[in-house]
Structure formats: C-alpha cells, structure tokens
C-alpha cells in the first residue's frame, strides 16, 4: 500500500508532460502520486488532464468532451497539474523568457528511484569525475571546493552558490576545459534548477532544470529543460549532450538503496561536499513532506 | 573513404557500431538523430535512408546500410585486416549469424523492457522481462560450459567476434528494463571480458570494467 499523500505534496503543481509532445486529439496515460491520469491537447493546443478510468494510451478523444478536469498550468514548455487545491504559484525561472535563449525539453525519462533521490543527485558535484568522466569532470580534479548554502526564507527555496568545478567539457558549446561556476536552486520539493557559466558568453548563465514527476514513492519521470545561450548548436545536438549526461546518471540513481530518501540525519553519512543535500533533506523535513522519503522518526 | 553513422547516444544498437569502430580504430563522423523525444527516425528525411525507420544507419561513401548486425558484418569484412571479427570459415560464419539473431531477440525483450520503463513505449513489460530472463539463462549456460572448455566468447574461435559485440549492449543495459543479472554469473564474467577488449569504449549507462584479477 502506498503511503497517504501528505497535504503539501497533494497541493503542489506537478509536471506531467512536455506540452509540445502531447498529441492533439489522442490520449496519453501516465501516473502521478500513484494516481492514473489521462492527458491530451485540444485543437487550440492547450493541454487537458483528468483522472484516468478506462482510457487507453493512443485512444482518440475530443478534448472538449472532457468535463471533469484537473487544474492545469503550462510553464517552461511543460504541462503541470495538481491533485488537490494548488496553494502557491509555480516557481519562477525568469531567464526562460529571454528572447535569445534556446529553450527545449530533452525528453521525459522514467527512473526507478524516488523523486527526491533524483533531486539530490542533481545537486551533487562530487560524482562528476567518476560518472561524467571527461565531460563534467576528470581525475585528478576531484575536489569539491567550499561553497555556500542557504534556505531563502523569502522564496522558500534551497540555494547553493559559489559552487566551482573544473570541467573538461562543460557544455555543447565548450571548446576547452574551464572552471565552471554553478548556482543551484531547489524551488520545489521535486524540482531543481541549475545556472552554470556559459562558454559562449561570460556575462550570462546557461539554465538546466530537472522537474521530477513522482509516479510512485519509488519511481519517477525526469523531465529535463535546457535554456541555453548557444548560437551554433542544433536542438538535436543540445538534447544529445544532456541525454548523454542523464544516461550516465540513470544506472547510478537506480542502484541507490533505499530508493526513498532518508531524512534522518544519521541514516546516511554525509561529507562536506554534501552540504546542499543536507540542507535539502532538512528543508523537506521541515515542510512535512513524507512522499518519496523516509521521514525522520519523531 | 568516409564513414558516417546516423546515431542516437542512448541506443544500444547504435553503440554496437561505435564499439566495433573504436576497437578497429576506424574514424567516422556522427549525424545525431533525435530518436527521443523527437522521433526523428520516423521523419521523411530519415525514412529515405532507411524505409524501416530504424537506427542505426551507416553510410560508407555512397553506400547506405542499415541493421546493426548487417553493418557489423560489413565493417568487419571490409576493415578488419586481422579477419578475426567475422571470419571467412563457413561454419563460424553460421555460428556468428546465429548469435546475431540472438542479439535481435535480446533487443526485442531486454531493450523493449527498457524502452517501456524509461521511454514510455507501450510494450508489455512483464512479458519482455520474462523473455529476457529466458535468453539470459541460455546464454549463461552456454558461457558457463564454454569456460569449462576454455572458451571465453560466444562463438568457438579463441577471440571475440561480432557476435559478442552484437549481444553485449542490451545485456549490459538490462537493469534499466528491471532485469537483474544477479543469477547469471557466467554472463557477468563475459561482460567483464568484453569490457577489457583493447579499444573498448563506453556509452551512457555502461561503465568500464575494473582491472582484471591477477592470479
């Protein structure tokens, strides 16, 4: 039996699809928080999401005939829904609207691990030289230098700044190794956004988002967003770069045990480089998130 | 000579060709194809290269080839001066082609489960997983008895052939399809041997082997 869904999680906006990849007039099916959903897009291109009963993937449907609908928002190229009553607006990524950015989905990929484990892996720099060898890191440059972490009260998000790492090939647009500076935001219990120095323009940052759709407590779908400053690469090139990275993370993530994220600080032994993970776990605990985690014994 | 591979990074079938070309030291260019999420292998321009709408496609000058097993045979026959990867001996040729067919069965089971779980394909997950276990059990036995007879590879020669390349990727990626290799020790030892072939290269999801144990 799945856990009861905690009220915070129930009332969050959750990502369910890349909007452009939803077929118009055909049904897609998916799972959110153990709840089967059906999705489609109307002739106006707007997504419609509802609780699935006997619908099957690929069935024809006229979106206008769907009366009982779940709330829907579209943002950052993705469709978001909520199983309860949405309390907050979706977190902002203002860079997405800058006119010269190349924005793209990079695929929605199922992973056999909890959503919070996937967020935490996204925040970790220590694995770069070992998992993303010769791309995001290489031996002997394995040190995670001291960085800053805070929980922004005003924005209710975890923020890690001054993260620096020597990267052989930081982005598709990179032509040589460079020390890259990262800023990580966790503005949503199951979403993280990173800003990294852009090889093409020193004054700006590439933005990469990972939005996790918690399907069950131990399974999720990772929806990847890239919002890049890159005047030469094609969308296919940029997607390939990101998928290469994510494909390397996937078996590592799927081999984590337990699959749910333990919130008790004594459950796993952190090192100094895990500062952002410690802040993230504490933040989830304080919010009262219990879905996809092993809560701290009270 | 100019070889171009129409390629998707996360495809095990494309990786078979990258792997053999890396082992043979063959230079080639890559044209990335957005298989997922773009479904570019069903786009008009791609269907003109391969009407079956499947990756990989390899172009050698003006010659356009498809099907990973067929291309492995072509590359070995044309560019492997040692003649080891696809030997001319009729009996061994038959043996290799038999294992190329097993590789296709591994694709339709282990790879199907991976596509269903990771990439939202509407394949029957349980049926695909059961099918993969049935094949893995047979390969494990074949390799276990081989080890007893001093044979390290799928076919009878004392060196690897394209049969080993063809079967390797979707065995290695099976866990992404929820198929554990824990019960197949001889199969796992063989994947280590493949990963120690000089010129071996990785793909996303497949990591290098550790150093071999020295007796």
UniProtKB/TrEMBL annotation, chain A:
Has the keyword Oxidoreductase been applied to this entry?
yes
PANTHER family on file:
3-KETOSTEROID-9-ALPHA-MONOOXYGENASE, OXYGENASE COMPONENT, IRON-SULFUR DOMAIN CONTAINING PROTEIN
Identify the residues that the record assigns to the Vanillate O-demethylase oxygenase-like C-terminal catalytic domain, covering every copy: 113-286
Q: Which organism is it from?
A: Devosia marina
The top of its lineage is:
Bacteria, Pseudomonadati, Pseudomonadota, Alphaproteobacteria, Hyphomicrobiales
One Gene Ontology term of the molecular function aspect: 2 iron, 2 sulfur cluster binding
Task: Kindly provide the name given to this protein in its UniProt entry.
Answer: Aromatic ring-hydroxylating dioxygenase subunit alpha
Name the source's superkingdom: Bacteria
Q: Tell me the Pfam families matching this sequence.
A: VanA_C
Is Hydrolase tagged as a keyword? no
Keywords, ordered alphabetically: Dioxygenase, Oxidoreductase
From TrEMBL, chain B:
Q: Where is the GST N-terminal domain?
A: 1-83
The Swiss-Prot or TrEMBL record annotates one GO molecular function as: transferase activity
- Tell me yes or no: is Lipid metabolism among this UniProt entry's keywords: no
Q: Where is the GST C-terminal domain?
A: 89-212
**InterPro entries xref list:** Glutathione-S-Trfase_C-like, Glutathione-S-Trfase_C_sf, Glutathione_S-Trfase, Glutathione_S-Trfase_N, Thioredoxin-like_sf
SUPFAM superfamilies in the record: GST C-terminal domain-like, Thioredoxin-like
| UniProt keywords, alphabetically | Transferase
Q: What is this protein called?
A: Glutathione S-transferase
Q: Organism source for this protein?
A: Devosia marina
Lineage, highest ranks first: Bacteria, Pseudomonadati, Pseudomonadota, Alphaproteobacteria, Hyphomicrobiales
């Amino acid at each position: 039996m799945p856990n009861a869904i905690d009220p915070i999680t129930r009332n969050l906006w959750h990502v369910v699809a890349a909007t452009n990849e939803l077929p118009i007039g055909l049904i897609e099916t998916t799972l959110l928080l153990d709840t089967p959903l059906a999705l489609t897009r109307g002739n106006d291109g707007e997504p419609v999401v509802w609780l699935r009963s006997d619908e099957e993937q690929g069935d024809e449907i006229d979106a206008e005939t769907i009366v009982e609908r779940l709330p829907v928002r579209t943002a950052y190229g993705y469709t978001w829904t909520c199983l309860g009553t949405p309390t907050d607006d979706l977190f902002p990524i203002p860079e997405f609207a800058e006119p010269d950015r190349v924005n793209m989905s990079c695929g929605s990929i199922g992973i056999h691990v909890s959503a919070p484990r996937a967020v935490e892996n996204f925040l970790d720099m220590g694995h770069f030289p070992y998992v993303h060898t010769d791309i995001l890191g290489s031996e002997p440059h394995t040190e995670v230098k001291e960085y800053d972490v805070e929980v922004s009260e005003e924005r209710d998000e975890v923020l890690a700044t001054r993260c620096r790492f020597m990267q052989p090939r930081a982005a598709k647009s990179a032509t040589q190794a460079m020390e890259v500076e990262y800023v990580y935001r966790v503005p949503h219990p199951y979403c993280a956004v990173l800003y990294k120095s852009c090889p093409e323009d020193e004054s700006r940052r590439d933005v990469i988002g990972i939005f996790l759709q918690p399907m069950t407590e131990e399974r999720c779908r990772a929806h990847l967003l890239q919002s890049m400053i890159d005047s030469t690469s094609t969308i296919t090139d940029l997607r390939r770069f990101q998928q290469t990275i994510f494909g390397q993370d996937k078996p590592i993530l799927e081999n984590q045990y337990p699959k749910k994220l333990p919130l008790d600080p004594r459950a796993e032994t952190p090192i100094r480089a895990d500062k952002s993970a410690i802040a993230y776990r504490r933040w989830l605990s304080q919010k009262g998130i219990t879905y996809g985690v092993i809560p701290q014994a009270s | 000579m100019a070889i171009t591979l129409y390629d998707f990074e996360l495809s095990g079938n494309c990786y078979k060709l990258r792997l053999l070309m890396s082992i043979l030291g063959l230079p080639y260019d890559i044209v990335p194809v957005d298989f997922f999420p773009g479904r570019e292998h069903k786009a008009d321009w791609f269907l003109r290269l391969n009407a079956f709408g499947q990756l990989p496609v390899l172009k050698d000058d003006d010659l356009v080839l498809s099907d990973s097993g067929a291309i492995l045979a072509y590359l070995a026959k044309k560019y492997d001066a040692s003649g080891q990867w696809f030997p001319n001996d009729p009996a061994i040729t038959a043996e290799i082609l038999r294992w190329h067919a097993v590789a296709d069965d591994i694709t339709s089971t282990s790879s199907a489960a991976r596509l269903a779980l990771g990439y939202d394909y509407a394949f029957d997950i349980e049926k695909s997983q059961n099918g993969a276990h049935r094949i893995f059990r047979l390969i494990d036995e074949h390799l276990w008895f081989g080890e007893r007879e001093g044979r390290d590879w799928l076919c009878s020669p004392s060196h690897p052939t394209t049969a080993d390349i063809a079967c390797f990727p979707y065995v290695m990626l099976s866990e992404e399809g929820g198929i554990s290799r824990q019960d197949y020790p001889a199969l796992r030892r063989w994947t280590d041997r493949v990963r120690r072939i000089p010129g071996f290269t990785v793909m996303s999801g497949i990591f290098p082997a550790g150093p071999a144990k020295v007796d």
